[in-house]
Amino acid sequence: MEVFPKVKLVVSACLSGERKRYDGKIVTHPLVEKLKNYCDFILFCPETGIGLPVPRDRTILLKTNSSIKAFYLGTKEDITEKVYNYYLNFKKALKEADGFLLKAKSPSCGISPKTKTYSDENGEKLISRNKGILADFIIKDFAPLPIADEYMLKDNEVFEDFFTRLFLFARLRASKAYEEEKKLTTSKNLALFLLAYNPSALETLGGFERVFKLRPEAFNIKMFPNSFSRSKFYNAFLHLLNLLKPALSSSAKKQYQLILDKFVRGKKDLIQTCNFIKSLLPEDLKTEFAWFLNPYPEELRG
């Protein structure tokens, strides 16, 4: 069974079971509950971070002229600057993070454009929906870390990209402590991930044969941008097939190709494809390519 390093995940406190919501309710998100087994959470809550109570009146996005601000209905106060200062202090204190999972529809940190936006200070005249006021700052400041809210993760490819890169970045961070004999295996897996995410970076490093010899320290997270593509992963799986051919029977090679065809057409997801490939391999090859064939914990998919 693959052992994953602990992920350092910035998560909205209200998703983690903390009593932070404006209505005072404690809501646990099933995916976040599963993540507790794999992550060290770094809790994030701009609203309570600037001193707003629980429970409290709503904070809304208020559009005035050409600008959008965070507006607290409890005191009829523009809290945009306070929220931004909280974020700046949080960013300054944050030492390490592998990704962000934030609350959808939040006026402060909702990443997808789902937050209700009003034209009046009573929060009655809904005119549009937008991202939270911190969203663009977080994306700019922490790229290429995977950043999403729970609404975005309903999309299959966003989900796969988010968790693949989240656990890849945690592995990269932890790889400095790996024993010397594991360096080569690590680099083989990283070469496959580069082909799946950023083929041009692989060529810049000199191609597969040279990358296989690199130490993990030669890789960094900027080499793995947010660009999940089934066709690129398909090419990476094909390259893996070439590496595995001496160990596979003719029948296994045909089965391998069939599952890849289903994957590239969207009939199988990444974890299903990896599991099928592992079923064809002896234990030593499952271990050799463990990172690539176990991109993230299967439990998260269920």
Structural overview:
By secondary structure, this protein is of the alpha/beta class. 42% of the residues lie in helices and 14% in strands. The protein has 13 helices and 9 strands. It has helices at residues 30-35, 46-49, 80-93, 135-142, 156-174, 183-197, 199-204, 208-211, 230-244, 250-264, 270-279, 283-288, 290-293; strands spanning 7-12, 39-44, 59-64, 67-72, 77-78, 99-102, 115-118, 126-130, 147-149. A hairpin with a 4-residue loop joins β4 and β5. α9 (230-244) packs antiparallel against α10 and α10 runs antiparallel to α11 (270-279). The chain starts with 6 loop residues before the first strand and ends in a 9-residue tail after the last helix.
